[in-house]
Amino acid sequence: MKIIRFGIIGCGLMGREFASAAARWCHLLDMDVRPEIVAICDKNADLFGWYKKNFPSIQCYTGEHQELLARADVDAVYCAVPHNLHAEIYEDIIRAGKHLLGEKPFGIDKAANERILDAIAKHPNVFVRCSSEFPYYPAVQRIVAAARAKKFGTILEVESGFHHSSDLDPNKAINWKRMIRFNGEYGCMGDLGMHTLHVPLRLGWVPQDVRAMLVKVVKERPGKDGKMEPCETWDNAILQCRAKDTLGAGDGSSFPLTITTKRISPGDTDNWFLKVKGTRLSMEFSTKEPKTMRWMEYTPGGEQAWKSEEVGYVAPFKTITGHIFEFGFTDAILQMWAAFCVELSGGATGLAFGCVTPEETRVSHRLFTAALESQRGNTVVTLR
Questions:
Q1: What is the 3-state secondary structure (H, E, C) of 115-131?
Q2: d(Cα 363, Cα 118) in Å, to the nearest integer?
Q3: Could you give the percent of the chain with pLDDT greater than 90?
Q4: Number of compact structural domains in the chain
Q5: What is the residue range of 81's domain?
Q6: Which of 11, 102, 145, 166 gives the lowest tally of CB atoms within 10 Å of its CB?
Q7: Would residue 54 count as lying in a domain?
Q8: What is the CATH number of the domain that holds 10?
Q9: Is 194 helix (H, G, I), strand (E, B) or coil?
Q10: In degrees rounded to 5, what are phi and psi of residue 368?
Q11: Rounded to an integer, what distance in angstroms lies between the CA atom of residue 163 and that of residue 261?
């Protein structure tokens, strides 16, 4: 069993999710690699208590990421910090020769993303990927497999979205995601968009242009002292794109690709979804019904009837969980980390579905930058 020794930079919500996944690695079967948490870093030392209670393997607790990176016993790093810190810290991680799984959007803006990718190019021995867990749901993997097998026929349209209702309450206190200096101008696109693009980009459905409709619903929120502060970032985004059909008819035709990211979507606590419609097959999935996939096969002159199927627990990496049980968010996190560790350890051959690549983050930044331009000019913008 190969052990990859990890440091965590950013010990909040997602840092704990990774640590928890590492703690239950035995849930996975037939693995010859596993992560071990040996060092953590956060400016807020109050977060260390949970880690100290649950992870005796941790040897270093620090508020300075350079101290963590200087340790010889750290092979790789998971970094989950606000977007404005991505370029600086990701560059430091890469220059230190540590492998990296970083959080989206992989830079606060296009310039920051280019800085990170330039550092990667200068250190080709460092393995780098971006976090995105939702495509590991079993039904989504069925959709991916159908697309790769060219079962859809000519693609008619694709819609991919990630919707929250977390900011529906106008009295919710302001946080860093509402401030451009921390979150960037992308707003909800930077925070949620990579999740929606992971599958389309992996299947070669790259946006060629975009017509963006960005919405700012709540203009101000209460700050720490109770005084109202301006909300500077976009709440919701609808991106209407044109993408080439690389897996369908094969004639270079294009289809509408709709990308939606919303932090104010009534009733959607945490809803990720994917819909693909083709002339021979259509399929769709939503995390609102994690066991259910809807699909419709069509032959000329035949019936047009949507069917529902409970796909059960069939994940890319085998686990102890029986097929009849339900797949959830923590399972998706575990599968994503398995994909990262397997590919890092040299097991990319036969990998069913890998983590987001640096080049895919580059495309996402081109799209989000073009979307901002589209919103300002109320026009269609070609990606460049």
A1: HHHHHHHHCCCCCEEEC
A2: 15
A3: 92
A4: 2
A5: 2-130
A6: 145
A7: yes
A8: 3.40.50.720
A9: helix
A10: -65, -35
A11: 6
Task: Determine contact, residues 213/237, Cβ cutoff 8 Å.
Answer: yes
Q: What span, in angstroms and rounded, lies between the C-alpha atoms of 205 and 383?
A: 13
Residue 319 DSSP one-character state: B
CB-count burial class (<10 Å; 0-12, 13-18, 19+) for 222:
middle
d(CA 132, CA 145): 18
pTM: 0.95
Overall size of the chain counted in residues: 384
Domain boundary among 83, 112, 130: 130
pLDDT tens digits, 168-191 = 999 999 999 999 999 999 999 999
Q: Is the peptide bond before 138 cis (omega within 30 degrees of 0)?
A: no
Residue identified by tokens 């069993």 is 1
Distance CA 283, CA 278 (A): 9
Give Cα 127 distance to the centre of its chain: 17
- Which structure tokens are listed for 162? 């990630």
Q: What span, in angstroms and rounded, lies between the C-alpha atoms of 103 and 122?
A: 21
Taking only the tens place, the pLDDT of each residue in 41-87 is 999 999 999 999 999 999 999 999 999 999 999 999 999 999 999 99
